[in-house]
Amino acid sequence: MLRFRKITLVTTMLVLVLHAFAQGPNNSGTYYQAATGKKGAALKTALYSIISNHRTISYDGLLTYYEKTDKRADGKLWDMYSCTTNYTFRDNAGGYKKEGDCWNREHSVPQSWFSKASPMKSDIVHVVPTDGYVNNRRGNLPFGETQKPTYSSNGGFCKVGPCSTEGYSGTVFEPNDEYKGDFARIYFYMATCYENKISSWSNTAVFAGNKYPAYKSWFIKMLLRWAKQDPVSKKEIDRNNAVYGCQQNRNPFVDYPGLEEYIWGGKQNVAFSYDNYDNSTDPGTDPDPNPDPDPNPDPDPDPNPDPDPNPDPDPNPNGVVFTLVKSETEINAGSYYILVFPGNDKVKSCALSDLTDGKNFYTSADVTIGSDETITTTVDEKGKPHQLLFGGTKGAYTIYDVMGKVYLSQTSNDNKLYTATTASDNKTKWSISVEAGYSHIINNNWTSREIQFNASNPRFACYTGSQKDLMLYRRTVTDGIDTPTTWQPTRVTVYSITGIAVRRNVERSVALAGLPKGIYILNGKKVVVN
User: Fold this and answer.
1) Is 396 in contact with 333 (CB distance < 8 Å)?
2) Torsion over CA: 140, 144, 148, 153 (sign)
3) What whole-number distance in Å separates Cα of residue 154 and Cα of residue 83?
4) Cβ distance 85 to 74 under 8 Å?
5) How many angstroms separate the CA atoms of 359 and 282, rounded?
6) Which of 38, 304, 430, 493 has the most CB atoms in a 10 Å sphere around its CB?
């Protein structure tokens, strides 16, 4: 009996120690511990109990705290309504006749909807600094999507117009793609933090008149989609941590990406765990490209020139030299390229680099553009630019990530950039045009989307024209002579290790493209496909 008691005591102490060391994300510690085990509406209520008892900041106090919560890397104010402003934190005084005159405090949830009541009026989570003129053009319109804008801010960054989202037809304000997820998570926070008040808020186009689900169905579906298409960024995480220092509460939808699915989406029957959180995508919510990994044993004798998945780039030990593409005649199957954002006053010039696991976008690697419009860089290493080997034909190019050994693909109509192991359909085909040095790479399946750079949340993905245009730089050979524009590879037959022909009379550059891992015979030599 004594031994049993000792074992029980040790076990109890071990459990207590493990709980003591269990931590939530972003240095949140045990802040969310009380919500563990809850699901759906009950989870929302548990989170309400955690985040609602926060410090109330005065409305004027917001002006001071913005320097902690909304400062860009260059020290200027972070404006989510305009892409052309460079405000200091003192540029909030005076009137505005146009975009860029001054900034003011914007209630993401218009304060007229809750009768300007406290503490919502000065809750820094949803009261954000934005351009005053664009803010005024929004007024108290709900967020939504419009295909026929009656007003657009500079560069079409934000829009006002009739709602094109199914379920509502009134006038809406559409924020930019790069901040739609930010605003969605703010709205999830507001429905949670003010669960005891939201049923009385006045906009019947948005609110359901209850504490759960709190919003109308059309609005919830749109917010869930926005949150998925624009995932949590470093900007949001940094702001959330700063808000905790000011207001003493946190936005759980930033700390736990995808948490909204546990409350309003497809994971309402899944129990939440604050220290063992599962943010995996629900089965079926994102289409699977479903590529066929098995090659055709008797392929078309004249296939499109898709590239060799194991090319020998022959890198220069001092770096590979790339030259700016200025004409579509410089785009050829069989040539190597890097995809570059040339930089601006906020972000350095950078090139497409590593694929982010599970996030479906590419990170960036800094590059230096010379005065002769060339880039010399190490390639195809972690944290370095990835070479892209072009295949296919004009109007239907394939783009092969040499280091990742995958084709760039656009699987669904969202702000992501997917990959595929084979180039078998329009999702992996791209149309490319060149204008004033900028290359527009448009997906053949989702023709409204092109590969662009998101400078606010640094990443390369497919957008509907709302982000930064890119440049292609084409690799030159080591002696400085450009790769020939007329490319005539020899034709070969590929055999399995057992001597069976798996591809006949195909071009050398595409002979191994898409083949499963294994050993093959090519020109009498063994070749390994990894």
Assistant:
1) no
2) positive
3) 7
4) no
5) 14
6) 430
- Residue intervals in the chain for CATH 2.80.10.50: 320-475
* Residue located via tokens 């405000």: 87
How crowded is the C-beta side of 2, counted as CA atoms within 13 Å? 0
Q: Residue 94 is which amino acid?
A: G
pTM, to two decimals: 0.59
Alpha-carbon torsion 419, 281, 254, 414, what sign?
positive
DSSP-assigned states of every residue in 337-403:
EEEEE---SSS--EEEEEEPTTT--EEEEE--B-TTSEEEE--SSTTSPPPEEEEEETTEEEEEETT
* Amino acid, single-letter form, for residue 65: Y
Q: How far apart are CA 272 and CA 258, in angstroms?
A: 11
Spatial separation of the C-alpha atoms in residues 240 and 250, rounded to whole Å: 6
* DSSP 3-state of 182: helix
Q: Which CATH class is domain 320-475?
A: mainly beta
SS3 221: helix
Q: What amino acid is encoded at 261 in this protein?
A: E
Helix 61-69 with 234-247: angle, nearest 10 deg:
140
Please list the pLDDT of the chain residue by residue as tens digits (530 residues): 444 444 444 444 544 444 444 689 999 999 999 999 999 999 999 999 999 999 999 999 999 999 999 999 889 999 999 988 999 999 998 889 999 999 999 999 999 999 999 999 999 999 999 999 999 999 999 999 999 999 999 888 899 999 999 999 999 999 998 899 999 999 999 999 999 999 999 999 999 999 999 999 999 999 999 999 888 988 999 999 999 999 999 999 999 999 999 999 999 999 999 999 987 644 333 333 333 333 333 333 333 444 444 444 443 445 789 999 999 999 988 889 999 999 988 789 999 999 887 778 999 999 999 988 999 999 989 999 999 999 888 899 999 998 888 999 999 988 999 999 888 889 999 999 999 899 999 999 999 999 999 988 889 999 988 899 999 999 985 433 333 333 334 567 777 665 666 666 666 666 777 666 677 777 666 777 76
424 DSSP β-pair partners? none
Q: Are strands 501-507 and 418-420 parallel, antiparallel or unpaired?
A: unpaired
